[in-house]
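Fig. S4 source data, part A: sequence.
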Amino acid sequence: MPFDVVTNEELCGVPAYKAFAGMLITAAVGVRLGARPILQPLFCYSPEVMVNGQMEDDYVDYNAAKVRVLREIVDAPVWPGAPIGFLTHSEDRVQSSLTTALHAMLAASLDVDAITIASSDEAYSRGPITAAARIDTLRATREAFRFLGATAVSPGPRADFWQERLLAGIEQVLKDVLVVGGFVPAMYQGVLGNREDGAYPGRAGANTVAERATAC
């Protein structure tokens, strides 16, 4: 059964390499259970990049590095979302549609398996999404793909740099998970994201999963 693994923790400040380490652990568990993971890295202007400057020059290189590093590690479908361009949209419907279309062009250039796009008012509507706003981004994305055709957006050399940094970070986090004794203690000890990052792992689900009794 296919299932998607989304790194929404990036939106609260967790660095991408920590989020990706958690994504890979979740994907590995899914494979052991017979499922088929679909990786959903965020194409977003996250708090991490706002503070550390990974997207100070452009939105292309760091997002490209995210897709490349996942492909370097695991053979699985990559479906950027959700939606692409998160935190790059504004209340201007034209701007919002344009940034969605530009991120869609990048995703197409990276030959991803699928993308998720938002309506042009999703970032600020705080209520029902309008039909016109859905059409905005669908038409913008269609025109962007027509403009791009069989060509591609080419990431710059910084994409290679960020890919190496992400890979090193992911590997270190996975090693740290082993050191503390596994996924659960690593999560509660902040290895996969701590309060300084913006993560608040809780125990609301404690004791909600029990082993099913076997009938005699």
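Fig. S4 source data, part B ends here. The CA atoms of residues 85 and 103 lie 6 Å apart.
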